[in-house]
Amino acid sequence: MSAVAQSTAFDIYATFQQFLKDDEISPPLAAILSLAEAIVKSNAGTMFELVQALNDGAEELKRRSQNPISLNAGCELFIAFVTLFPHEADNFAELKEELEQQGRKYATEAISFRDKIAELALGFIKDDAVILTHSYSRVVLKALLHAHKTKRISVYVTESRPRGLGLKTHDALTAAGIPCTLVLDSAVAYVMDRVDFVLVGSEAVVESGGLINYVGSNQMAIIAKAANKPFYALAESYKFHRLFPLSQYDLPTHNPNILSFPTPTGRSAGHSDAPSFATLDATTKGPVRSETSWSSAERAMSQEQIAKNPGVDYTRPDLISLVFSDVGILTPEGVSQYLVGMFAG
Amino acid sequence: MAPAPLLEVHPPNGPSNGEAPADQQKSQKQMTKQERRELQERQRAAKAAKTATGANGKPQGGKPANQPAAGGGAPSRKTADAASKLPSTGPAKTIEKAKAGQSSAADQLAKNQARGLLIFSHFGLPKPVSSAKGDIHPVIARTALQFSSFKITGANARCIATLTAFKTVIQDYVTPPNNTLSRHLMTYLSPQISHLVAARPMSVTMGNAIRQVKLDISGSDIDLPEQDAKDALCRKIDTYIRERIIIADQVIQETAGNKIKDDDVILTYARSSVVEKVLLEAHASGRKFSVIVVDSRPMLEGKRLLAMLSEAGIACTYVLLPALGSVIGEVSTVLVGAHSIHTNGAVYSRAGTALVAMMAKRHSVPVVVCCETYKFSETIQLDSFTKNELAPLGDLFSSFPNNKPRESLTLENKPNLEILNPLYDLTPPTCITAVVTEVGVIPPNSISSIPVALGRLL
């Protein structure tokens, strides 16, 4: 990809992609590492210029990524760190070096956060526990594998359409020898009574104490609350975000296309239900059968229809029991206290 | 909870405890502290009863009404929180009267006249500002009058008026010989402050500001020449106003403004100076939204807000509080201001705000409270009646429609009618979605982290 209007040929997004190739590194960490590199590569002469350059880099990453929220959390954390860093270095170049090193050090340390969290979660997992989890999360996987070493657990994983990430989790768990069953997204309520508690990862934990995670987490939290099962969220501290969504539709990922109704076209010749499917056949490569007969064959949504659906949702803080993070086990209110303490001033 | 002010014959400790008067006969040791106190009051009142009987004229707003009204405070003490202070002990004769009224018909009439408000009377009815006791500076007297006649209303406005008055007082102040400014000025200011409080109970904002002023005074350098010290104090007051109110409002304008999107329907209640600024700023930055202003009597403050917003070109709808249920379905966000906010996250604001917040919560509409950090009070308040203020009776809020004669709508006490007008109520933290302050957007359960955030800034 060619560089976009940056002074050097440094393309932050390409660097970001590079870092993401390592499976252990999640988007926020990759963002921090890319920004750290951006520091060194930039030719800013003053702190102000540097922060400007970093902000521009962060904007670029957000723009080009499909899922900007967790990325944003990492970027903001790093930029805040850079701004507050005590300036001991004699010249600016040295300072930049130091900042870059700190960035890398943080990223390496951050990988170990997951182990800390897994250890904290261990105390809440009893022997013979039945756990429900959603989609794919590295930190949840680590926690489950860690628990498996000393306890017997069984896990239900949701399929998590449309990306089907739940299958990834299922494969990883089965490979480790943990009894694991895939569950339809729509069967969460059905299975909830069998489950001891729910464990999910997170894209971001927000200032209200709520959780942003793959779509389906909110549903799971509401059902868990109704069934009186604890709902635990695992989140590394770099995922704590100062965002404060007032509702689902207040998320930065929400755009007018999501859940919009199609503009009505005239009823052309054909089945009264069929027109929408008939036109889609021609335009998309979606797995829609060409015969619109309602046979027992499975059907799936087209890409266009999937695009009208959200990728993440927001879970309110009153539905979450505890948030496990490397800074400790926090209640949703505690998350806000931590964030205010960290970022205020 | 005590029932609404009915004029049925109740023994004063009837509503909540239901103890028969016969129980009062048990020995002092067996009585609870309350009962012992009651007994004491009664005995004291019996002595004072003869002289006081003459004073029980028709209850009107003013001193005579104070006594029966405050006398109702004793029975309501049982229902009120233990935290509230004991009401004045003088008119405890009405307890005795109430008890005697059961037996003697002659007292019945006097009792009816003496019956005051059964609830909320523990914070006393507003009295007209009496003539200044002691050396009250004219600007303080004027400010007090503006407060008591409700010409200046709103937590921010009152605080700014108080501080501005103090600046004048400080500049006019001359240290008496053999005294230092830092010590004497405080004693000089105390009667001024009491005069203001007598006009209208102190708001949390005034309280916090005055505490800061006192801190600055006591910290002022003894060696400074007097004029320099006074100038320094005035500068500090200016800084306080600028930083904690004006600039804080600007930050809140921006933060809360970001929560307003195109095509939103914003609902607001009565008139909050901060919310007004937020809406005007959001409109000025080009967002297209409409506003529903909900208002209520007797103050009808929403009309001023309506005038400001429509003048700026914002599409507004104006409804009274009872119509809230019909409009809430179309609302995207509720934006309200606050008089003060407590450690447990409860918001103390104009009476009616709690209704709006609860209704919004029921319909899953987010409730956003805009509140500067200097409104933060370290106390915890659990309900609306441990601390409140009653609006004075009479033709204060000239907000009547023109087609009705003024007299028909003026509120006034009559022999069988008591007017009850609390000015504030408490919104529980569960109904609030977010509190926007100048240190950030905070969920209501974490309001106690504001001092931490402030500690960082200072």
From TrEMBL, chain A:
Record's GO cellular component terms: cytosol; eukaryotic translation initiation factor 2B complex
- By its UniProt entry, which SUPFAM superfamilies does this protein fall under? NagB/RpiA/CoA transferase-like
What Gene Ontology molecular-function terms does this entry list? guanyl-nucleotide exchange factor activity; translation initiation factor activity
Highest taxon of the source?
Eukaryota
User: Per its UniProt record, what InterPro entries does this chain match?
Assistant: eIF2B_alpha/beta/delta (IPR051501), elF-2B_alpha_N (IPR042528), IF-2B-related (IPR000649), IF_2B-like_C (IPR042529), NagB/RpiA_transferase-like (IPR037171)
Q: Specify one Pfam family.
A: IF-2B
Intracellular or extracellular location(s): Cytoplasm, Cytosol
Q: Provide this UniProt record's keywords sorted from A to Z.
A: Cytoplasm, Initiation factor, Protein biosynthesis
Give the record's family classification.
Belongs to the eIF-2B alpha/beta/delta subunits family.
Matching PANTHER family, A to Z?
TRANSLATION INITIATION FACTOR EIF-2B SUBUNIT ALPHA
- What do we know about how this protein assembles, alone or with others? Component of the translation initiation factor 2B (eIF2B) complex which is a heterodecamer of two sets of five different subunits: alpha, beta, gamma, delta and epsilon. Subunits alpha, beta and delta comprise a regulatory subcomplex and subunits epsilon and gamma comprise a catalytic subcomplex. Within the complex, the hexameric regulatory complex resides at the center, with the two heterodimeric catalytic subcomplexes bound on opposite sides.
Protein name, per record: Translation initiation factor eIF2B subunit alpha
Q: What is the protein's species of origin?
A: Lentinus brumalis
Automatic annotation (TrEMBL), chain B:
Q: Where is this region: Disordered?
A: 1-107
Question: Which keywords fit this entry according to its UniProt record?
Answer: Cytoplasm, Initiation factor, Protein biosynthesis
Superkingdom: Eukaryota
Q: Which terms in the Gene Ontology molecular function aspect does this entry carry? A: translation initiation factor activity
Q: Name one GO cellular component term.
A: cytosol
Biased segments, Basic and acidic residues type: 32-44
Q: Where are the transmembrane segments?
A: none
Q: Does the keyword Transcription apply?
A: no
Subcellular location, record wording: Cytoplasm, Cytosol
A Pfam family assignment: IF-2B
Family listed? Belongs to the eIF-2B alpha/beta/delta subunits family.
Q: How does it assemble?
A: Component of the translation initiation factor 2B (eIF2B) complex which is a heterodecamer of two sets of five different subunits: alpha, beta, gamma, delta and epsilon. Subunits alpha, beta and delta comprise a regulatory subcomplex and subunits epsilon and gamma comprise a catalytic subcomplex. Within the complex, the hexameric regulatory complex resides at the center, with the two heterodimeric catalytic subcomplexes bound on opposite sides.
Q: Spell out the protein name for this chain.
A: Translation initiation factor eIF2B subunit delta
